[in-house]
Amino acid sequence: MFTPYDFQDKAVADARAAIAAGKRRVIIVAPTGSGKTVMAAMITELARNKDKLVLFLANRRELVFQAQRTIESTGLTTGRGRVRPWGGNPDRFDADVLPAHGPGGAYT
Fold this sequence. Notes:
Layout: H1 6-20, H2 36-49, E1 54-58, H3 61-72, E2 81-82, E3 97-101
Parallel strand pairs: 1-3, 2-3
Helix pairs in contact: 1-2, 2-3
């Protein structure tokens, strides 16, 4: 497990407050190297603690793999899948989190 920086704790708290206030689309904007994947893992862990489902989407396979490693460092399990715009099932549903990317770079 990792120890977040104060600014990461604040960003996650602000995102959670926005969601609690009824916002449905929340984005955390931060520079390269600031730990956005770590913040996503923090939010994922909090969501799973409330039995919420989590789908982590990224536009590149490398970002999906990075997210898998970071999320797994929290003790959660990750599946492996791809998003199919025409429907169909991802490879696994039995994981805490399903990191995936779209059909432009889908992997098997």
